[in-house]
Design a protein that fits this description.
The complex is a heterodimer of chains A (164) and B (800). Chain A is of the alpha+beta class. Helices cover 20% and strands 43% of the residues of chain A. Classes of the chains: A alpha+beta (164), B alpha/beta (800).
Amino acid sequence: MGDKLKQIIDKQSEQKNGVVEQLDDVVQLVGFMIGDEEYAVPILAIQEIIKPFAWTRVPQVPNYILGVFNLRGAVIPLLDLRTKFGLTPKNQGEDTRFVVLRHGDDVAGFVIDRLTMAIRLKKENIGAAPDAVGGDDSIIEGVGKQADKIITILKVNKLLERTF
Amino acid sequence: MDEFQEILQDFLVESFELVEKLDEDLVELESNPEDLELLNGIFRVAHTVKGASSFLNFDVLTHLTHHMEDVLNKARHGDLIITPDIMDVILESIDLMKALLETIRDTSADEGIDVSACVARLDKISNGEAPSDATVEPEEKSEPESVVEEAPAEEEEPDYDNMDPDEVEAEIERLLAQRQSEDKAKRDAKIAAGEAVPTMPEVEDEEKKEEEPKVEKKEEKVVAKKVPAPVKKEQKSANKESAKAAAPTKRTPAAVEQTIRVDVKRLDHLMNLIGELVLAKNRLMKINEDVEERYEGEEFLEELTQVVSIVSLVTTDLQIAVMKTRMLPIGKVFNKFPRMIRDLSRELNKKIELVLAGEDTELDKSLVEEIGDPLVHIIRNSCDHGIETPEERTAKGKPEGGTISLKAYNEGNQIVIQIDDDGKGLDPQMLKEKSFEKGIITEKEMDNMSDKEAFTLIFRPGFSTAAAVTSVSGRGVGMDVVKTNIEKLNGMIDIESVVNVGTTIKLKIPLTLAIIQALLVGVQEEHYAIPLASVLETVRISKDEIYTVEGKSVMRLRDDVLSLVHIGDIFEVERILDASEHAYVVVLGLGTSKLGLIVDTLVGQEEIVIKSLGDYLKGIEGVAGATIRGDGGVTLIVDVAALMNMAKDVKNSALNSSTEGSSAVKEKTKASDYTVMIVDDSKTDRTIMRKALEPMGITLVEAADGQEALNILKSGDYNFDAMLVDIEMPRMDGYTLATEIKKYNRYKNLPLIAVTSRTSKSDRMRGVESGMVEYITKPYSADYLASVVQRNVNFKAEFL
């Protein structure tokens, strides 16, 4: 009886280790479209994804900051990634979503054109950002390679950093 | 180690509490040097601190307090009379003690402060030498009758001089216990007599006191037993007792208050939660209103209304209750002023008396911390510039000693702190000339300035009326600090002054900072919240009442000229909606300045909770924060102080925004450049219209009702050349739609064509009133419709 129990426990812990190993290798991301490009952020940095609703404009800020909105009692800034990335603003449509990202105490909502999917990427398939745009100041964490396309992975802490 | 820290914390808290009360006691002691009760109290402080600090190995502090104790002990026993010079040394040593305690608080050690000089002086005093010229007056005998009259309720006093320290301790204990029971008895007697308690000893009292040192000396040695004190004396000691309430409460069991110490952070957290609750309450009330509208007369509605009002009531009470836990009596701030006035009057060689009132008035802890500095500056200023020297005063026929009174009281949702002095007052003409000399104001400003405005000049940075800079004031900085600090608290400053009679400064401060009453205003489609404390009044004006002076808008408000600024210019609001002939002016007052803020609409008054915009958006000029409204939307809160600053630089586009008309119309190069919207709730009707217009090759957009049509317009996706509007539609009918559209500058000239089966004359009239240009009645021929549209969009013939 005791042996059997031990075996089961051993087996379970083995499995657990296996899962941990797997998790270590794999990065989970959420992909989304801005213009024609696909971007992704780590799934753990996402607090929630919500459908667009009304926000309040804030004066005297760069144009990519749309304003603030109420997320269950908290006042949170809303940024338009299209404008931030230098694309022409587009009206929000059916597929538009607010992605609420969190890094430490910083929280902000980002307007994206369309969600694509949750992505599991092996670490070895993530390359460094191209030299030209790399470095500490870059907003790009790295480039994820998939079978048919590449995805730009964004640095959440840089997205949430005030740059004005 | 932790245990030590814990003890240390307790020690610090206790010591600071004791020291806080000390200053006031000492100053009072100076006028009543023989007051044994006071002396005992002060001695106890020194003793307690000494005991605890020696236990905690703070040698410097122990050393200092030990010597203080020596001096005080001598004074207590009557071997020493407290002269102002001795008092200076004692006060100095207490300052050192405070400094040491602060060092301990910050560094957990009492190093780095040199006390030897002070200790030497204390030693000198306790050895019987005066610190400077004045020696202890030999005790004179006074008339025996005064002994009887003034006899305090003391039993025989043993000869302290021959006691060893332990005996002294025991004696103190005994005396204390005895004193307490006496005081208690006296208080009871007093309460029974129903006497009011004056906060300051009266002048006659003090005169009497002059004689007392001698009396008490005598009584120790000559008189063995005393009759109980006469009523007069009783009253006096009771007064002192109540004035000293804070310190002795711990020791008088009769007056023990049940209190617990709570970390401020917990209270802050509680306050935040209440804030959430207030928001939820606002939301609930809004929902209740909506439901009421929709289900009028239904039974459940009454129940809902009841619940909502109970929730609202309880929330308000809860909010007040929590706010009260954060309230501190303003006496905490006032306490340090008697000492300050004493020091200043000695320094300036003036006789100044400070009268305090309303020390029990409570205000939020955060405000108590902020209000100290401004008051210091105002009082210093009153001492230095307000009160004249005794000679000048006598020459003017005023009493030799000046009076500064400091009082606090509640006025509505605000607390008012009033500082009066009976000094020389402010001379508006002189103020204007000085400011002009220093280049603070222009000559023109000087001529147009009212007296009241002139008084406010003293708050301008760089302004000073003092002929010379003294150590007390004259640098022209202090009053500027007052203004900035008070404005930071959303407070207002009011000055009144009469030359040679005195000056009154009133500081009006909101009770709390977290939850405030706000006036909600609308500009175009946006709303903003203005703290109600800064709103003086609102006025409805027509555009003709606005004048332009040097590129700035102003208006006449009764006898004043009020400068105006449009909220839209401050917050870069895009002007989509057409402004009406009338505007509302919100008159803002902050500190001493006033400004008229032009808004489109007044929405109403609401209780709002201030939320920060967070790190990402902090520091936006003119925005103090945000709040969440009943409908769940976010409304920005106006920072009135910043707004007043910004208003100086804003050029007014507010009023000459007039009509730019329809913006640059793009040249039409092909038929499909023309865009027409069809608004009709019936799919069939829309299709009929589409069929009629399609042959022209123009672009057609459909909307199923007025609301949808309006949304399409607002989105700006299309540039419409005309709209075909059905009158009867759900959600928003054609007339309302037309009225709404005409509010937008951009669409002022957009042709609206009514297509309807309503044919009566009144319908047509309404159509015209709401801005329709054509009226087509169903049924119509396709050709007719097409020709009407062509005419209205100026369809170019070549596209046909």
